[in-house]
Amino acid sequence: MKNEVTWIEKYEQFNVFVISLKDIPADLWLCPIKEGKWSIGEIVSHFYYWEKFILEERLQKFLSGEKDFVKPDVELMNQAASEFAKSGASRETIINLFTESRSQIAALLTSLPAEVLDCEISFGSNPITIRKYIIGFEEHDQHHKRQIEEFLQEKASGPKQLP
Q1: Contact 26, 49 (CB under 8 A)
Q2: Residue 110 has pLDDT above 70, yes or no
């Protein structure tokens, strides 16, 4: 038996990082990570909005046999995610919505046979398998994780000293 983490397990394990954000100081949750950038709360809300989109507009439609996939309005979805984070929704609520969605997707993916995971689907003119589509989100996750970690590291080390 292999002791290898599968791509689905790796996808779901991102929950561990997001759950760890429950422990950051409250004043950092909605503090922009850089000028003109989102806060940690907005980033996690952004994760949740994408999970919801993947589940409702990609996976469920594909599995029900639909061939007409909606192209997301990325700016509109990101704006809605930002507004939700700043709406008064608690940190715990946002984190829980994300982790529940991610776990729900992982459970659904685990239940699918390999031939379904490796079946090509098209979003516009770009054919891709479900497996590759989900694996592609790892880079997105890691990009935002690095941003958050750098911000938290900077806050932990205090203001930079001028030479």
Answers
A1: no
A2: yes
